[in-house]
Amino acid sequence: MASLCSGFVLSSQLSPNPNLHFFKINAKPLPTSTFKTKPNFTKQDQSTPISRHFVLVHGACHGGWVWYKLATLLNEAGHRVSAPDLAASGINPKRVEEVNTFEEYSEPLMEVMEAVPADERVVIVGHSNGGLSVALAMERFPQKIAAAVFVTAAMPSITNSYVAITKKLFEDVRKDRKDSKDVSGPRRSFSFGPEDLRTNYYQLCAPEDVTLATMLVRPGKPFFDSSIKRDDFVTAENHGLVSRVYVVCNKDRALPRRTQIWMAEMSPGTETIELDGADHTPMLSVPEEFFRHLVDISNRYQ
Fold first, then answer.
1. How far apart are CA 99 and CA 29, in angstroms?
2. SS3 state of residue 15
3. What are phi and psi of 147, to 5 degrees?
4. From the CB of residue 149, how many other CB atoms can be counted at a distance below 10 Å?
5. CA–CA gap between residue 112 and residue 269 (Å, rounded)
6. For the whole model, what pTM was predicted?
7. I want to staple 128 with a disulfide (CB 3.0 to 4.6 A). Which of 4, 93, 274, 299 is the partner?
């Protein structure tokens, strides 16, 4: 799991808009489909824009800061954004050795979801390893989620366990991690090296974004505890009720396109969107196109 990368915006919302409206419907998965063109609108030409609440979940070693471009676009378009720092990530005060379980790691996201009013339904977006935390939120708060978006992410489902995903990643993901490092033993952790970030995760990003990442990434931890490996980590009764969208990044060097497509196919009913020219970090490499797709998703899943 070390090769799944993220994870600026604070744990609270950016410029909250008090006039938000959310609409309840029965969330039913749509048939799988693939979009290779941009949605037919821009943030300026929506005739009846709908203000939504987006919850953005970073991946391993990153923090809410990785969403700064996308959060700005969403906020300027009138949407609310929450991008919590998971435990021992971003500016979260915990150290990686103090986080013992996946549930502890995901607790900041659970706190955000707990605070969402009962009559609101958010669009939750998980990037890379953040897809695991999104799956946990879907299981615990299905009634508060209009759609769950997995962006070149790990995607557990009722038909694809965490153990199966881990096995697939070991088979498909590149073995050369350049200057990234793993620490074994009781304080098991991993960290991304600058060359690995630049070459495999941020290769299509602006140089200043690469510099930002090398300054802000923190050590992460692979989780194999019982809280994530148990058979009922996700269930049809909860997780299965939430509409799902998978965003494939076709220039991703960290998580191969074929593996991303496999993730979506192993979760029947998942809609698939492909971002052309996106590396592993599309919120930085293609933020405008990513923004358009997210707004389109939010308009279709209410």
1. 34
2. coil
3. -155, 145
4. 28
5. 27
6. 0.84
7. 4
Please state whether beta strands 244-249 and 80-82 pair in parallel, antiparallel, or not at all (unpaired): unpaired
For residues 238 and 158, the answer to whether their CB atoms sit within 8 Å is no
* Interatomic CA distance for residues 65 and 30, integer angstroms: 32
Backbone angles phi, psi at 271, to 5 degrees: -80, 140
**Which residues does residue 248 pair with via DSSP β-bridges, in sequence order?**
274
What is the rounded distance in angstroms from the CA atom of residue 208 to the CA atom of residue 246? Answer: 28
Catalytic residues: 128, 252, 280
Q: What is residue 126's DSSP assignment?
A: E
Q: Which residues contact 194 (CB under 8 A, 6 or more apart)?
A: 179, 210, 214
Per-residue pLDDT 10s for the chain (302 aa) are 444 433 333 443 333 333 332 222 233 333 334 444 455 444 444 445 689 999 999 999 999 999 999 999 999 999 999 999 999 999 999 999 999 999 999 999 999 999 999 999 999 999 999 999 999 999 999 999 999 999 999 999 999 998 899 889 878 876 666 677 666 555 678 899 999 999 999 999 999 999 999 999 999 998 887 778 887 899 999 999 999 999 999 999 999 999 999 999 999 999 999 999 999 999 999 999 999 999 999 999 99
Q: 95, 88 in Cβ contact below 8 A?
A: yes
DSSP E strand boundaries for 106-203: 122-127, 145-151, 181-183, 189-191
Distance CA(161)–CA(179), nearest Å, equals 30
